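Protocol step 4 of 6: structure prediction from sequence.
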Amino acid sequence: MELIYSFTVALFLTIALMPVLIRFSAQLQLVDAPTVDRKLHDKVMPRSGGLAIILGVFIPLAFLLAMDGYIPYLFIGSGIIILFGLLDDRIELNYQWKLFGQSLAVIVVMMGGIVIHQIPFFGLEAMPNWISWPLTFIFLLGVINGVNFSDGLDGLAAGMSLLALATIAILATVVEDQNVALISLTVIGGILGFLRFNTFPAKIFMGDAGSQFLGFITACLAIVVTQSESSALNTFLPVIILGLPILDILQVVPVRIKKGLPLPGPDKEHFHHQLVKLEFKHHEVVAIIYVLQILMMSGAYLLRFESDIALFSFYMVYLLVVLGALYMAHRVGWRVRGPQLETFSRERRNLLFRKIGWVYHYSAQIVQVVLILFFIVVPLLITDIAFQFSIAAMLLAFAFAVLGFVFKSASALLARVACYSVSVFLVYLASMHIQNPSYLNYIDIFLAVLAAFLMLSIRMSRQEQFRLDTQDLLILLMVVIVPQLPLNISEDLAVSEMALRLAVLMYACEFLLAREDGKHFKYLSMGSVFSFFIISMTTYITL
């Protein structure tokens, strides 16, 4: 329960703080101006998002974590990283001061016991401090800067960190390390709240305070979960979990040396910049790196108990394939969008879309009718629901009806809450209390067709009203992958299937609610209220 509580508090606290920090970023002197040497944005942006993540994370953790062992040192080290990061966000520290702050934070956590004692290929014997301390220092410093370097595109550093922390949380659950699981999931909650405002096109950046904190906390947790005496995990795993930031450093250092650039300092030679030079679009670059990170995290999980040579070989092959493909693409001058290919593809798309032009004009009306039909029919297929559900549905029907009548100015918010609430009710009840199991197959086919139509409608509208972004990719992957893992989830709950059904319904709701004309708010609210009423009476009116 603590895990869910901490994650939820971090998520909603970060979301609540974000608009405030966006508004007052100029007064806090936390803004990011575009520059020629590194930045890819073209206007002044708030970079106070890291503060929201930090506050959202540490407020629940301060109440839930016992201040013993390495925990106080981790808090103090994080405080140092955050302090120097905020100074850098305000006054642009030179690289000597940055390294000083990072080094100070790293030394603090090493004093607290976060040290790489067991080194791959050297057995289970603890290494002497004169080996383990410098190795830990280099690893932590490298990851901090690697994650910081990756913070060049909207949602990139945050998404990569989220996937790494999700892997750490899963590994912590496997070895029953409650503290690491709690910290990881809390930081994930903060990141998800931040991504709501940072996914392309971003409204706010996390700044150096946020990116350095994420790199620092992720690297520290990766060491803790693999180095504890009770852990059977391979000690090479931190390199895999933080493999992409390390890869970025490995590929950018030779480029800087070749061009005679200083190793520290801003440039446009990082991994994501190299993909941009191949003419991938902003969101495509982020999606590609997410997929590469997912492949790396999958390798980390699948090889968690394997030998050192197996993990080392996996990482070497990964590096050779990714960096080799990047090198060859630049060497031969390959570009993802040649002018002739782009013109040909556009003409084919336009020809197809002209044949189904009705989708553009009537997609919203079709989705609305289909969604309300789902809300009305599915309750009739449910049976044997608990009395508490009937009472809750009746109360919600009454509450939304009254609120809709009284607060007409908040129709969009009420429609969203009502739609989301009834979707959760219907997905759970249909999954657990359907009259005939075959009905559930029909519901899944219905939702699959709806999902396909939604994707076509979004593409046809050229994302004028609603767009899918890289955060949706993260959500989809978590929905599909996490329930498949051995995390002691009840066997009675088909979590993955339920989550996919819920995702389709919520995206359908958002597709309608994102339209500025507001025509659909009233009908969605009425459909939701009517659905709740049918659920409350389902014992008497089921088919």
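Step 5 (inspection) to follow. The two ends are 38 Å apart (CA to CA).
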